């Protein structure tokens, strides 16, 4: 887990730099620090575990910080965006437009105009969206490239968040896909995207979902007006957030994908994509906040920090968790004997709880607290305007500079 970040002279370090020095560098706390070398290492690990035929796409919503995107653009094969804002950020990197896909329900007509004009793949979520894309394509005189996002007729076991099966706002129900394919008209049909669940730590469940996805895509491909050139199998790879979580085993997933590539997927001359967000960046980030008060209340010691749920909502347990569990955290600037404390943020709400009855080194006012697993769904997934506190800073640190000249796109 990411709480294995090293210490330098007793102080937690990110990218080789102690966090107290990083605090001075950015002008104070709170801040997010992302380790460039860990991002590179995670992609390298995935490349080694998965078949060479598999393309990696990064889900920008996990962490859209521009510096992170620029680094990732030299590591992965594509980006997936979910808004015009993310699209613009992606287009500002070295990622080619034809390797960017735009998914998500509720795309406005203005967003569709931007996407079609940019030449990215629009992943259709409904029949009405298809018709709007047709109108946009006609008005611009540009043949829009589209894929169908499919709501599968199965659900994924073990997923932290279910995005497929049953009634969903995401994608087109699998049984409706044939009628939608019949209405594509002059649009450039690219392929299918099936994303059934996220934050899954069970390799067997992910493998089962991938097999079911491939079977579904093959059935639908037989009804497509043109050959399928793109198959997005989704992702859903999870990361551990507590001591009782077991890290995902990539080996069986790689073996399963290799079998699918060598057998079923051979029937399609398609680019096969695994789309990941949290798994690529989540463990590379740390949220650092400073203790501003230490108080005792009826047997409980509280450490009050200058950050909170307005920056790191997920760590407070208010970002869709069914059962609240403490994220891993540490006193970054102390190695004193441990004590049981509750870490709370600076907001005037009892929801602002970052660590409930945790064993930490004794911390005093001025010490820094680091919350791990903060590289995904941190700043941009949090209510930063709540109570009017200033936004945190973000920085990407680490010595490794990826050489784009050595990178070859996965075809």
**Number of DSSP-assigned strands:** 22
Biggest sheet, open or closed, and with what strands and sense?
Answer: 8 strands, mixed
Give me the CATH superfamily of the largest domain: Alanine racemase
Strand content range: 25-35%
Helix content: 25-40%
**CATH fold naming of the largest domain:** TIM Barrel
- How far apart lie the N and C ends? 32 Å
Count of helical stretches: 10
Cofactor: pyridoxal 5'-phosphate
Keywords: Pyridoxal phosphate
Protein name: Pyridoxal-dependent decarboxylase, exosortase A system-associated
Domain Orn/DAP/Arg decarboxylase 2 N-terminal: 38-281
Concise summary:
It comes from Kutzneria chonburiensis. This protein is α/β, with parallel strands linked by helices and 411 residues long. 25% of the residues lie in helices and 26% in strands.
Account of the 3D structure:
The chain is of the alpha/beta class. The chain folds into 2 domains: about 1-35 and about 285-395, Lyase, Ornithine Decarboxylase, Chain A, domain 1; about 65-275, TIM Barrel. Helices cover about 25% and strands about 25% of the residues. The protein contains 10 helices and 22 strands. Strands 4, 16, 17, 18, 19, 20, 21 and 22 form an 8-stranded mixed beta sheet that branches. Strands 5-6-7-8-9-12-14-15 form an 8-stranded parallel β-barrel, surrounded by 4 helices. Helix 9 links the parallel strand 14 (about 230) and strand 15. Helix 5 packs across helix 6 (about 125-140) and helix 8 runs parallel beside helix 9. The longest helix has 19 residues, at about 205-220. Keywords: Pyridoxal phosphate.
